[in-house]
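User: For my dataset I need records formatted as: sequence, then structure tokens, nothing else. Please produce one.
Assistant:
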Amino acid sequence: MAARGWYKPGMGVNIATIDPREAEHFGRLAADWWNPKGESAMLHRLNPVRLRYIREAVDAHWGTDPRDFLPLKGRTALDVGCGAGLLCEPLARLGAAVTGVDAAPENIGAARAHAAAAGLSIDYRAGEFEREVSGRTFDLVTSMEVVEHVADPAAFVAGLAAALTPGGLMVLSTPNRTPLSRLAMITVGEGLGMIPRGTHDHDKFLTPDELTALLEDAGMAVTDITGLGFSPTVGFHLSGDMSLNYLLAARHA
């Protein structure tokens, strides 16, 4: 999750994509981000499923051995809207040289402190994505639950595409705009305090077709879309049902 308009959104994009209200909202969560029972508990539950998807996408894209502990060794990775580093740290452990960018300085402060305590070297940067990584490209670009928070999704996606090296892999995740996502994430999730109140605006959720169109307009080709489902018995899991949330892999067309 990240602030609306991350550019930490995107290269060559108007910095008006950043919404200060979103940055402030997520910045307030910084101190509690790494608490698996705190306000970011939902992210801790989502993270293993995201990582499984990313690992499978990496193996499919580069032909790496699923048994390899360091499939990203020698590769660079960028996580846009990195929060306090929940995804950056496991990407670093998979061997990547990781850069994490977030619009909220409080998040980056928490991310740096946690990485230092874990003995991980991660390049964390606070600010607009377009400024912080201008002129650089990365083998892997990820952005988890961010596009629904940006002011200009088309500009954001174009920025992500510009940050991806030729031959690279992009992985995104976002809620689908359906009655189920409204019920689960806003009515229940935010209503019962499982997700911080005010996190989501259902009208800004993108359907898979809408996000695919934005990526294609940015010169990308979508190679996979997989649903992220939930059940009381197994929790969050990869699924053929995309009505709640979905993950997407893409490359340059």
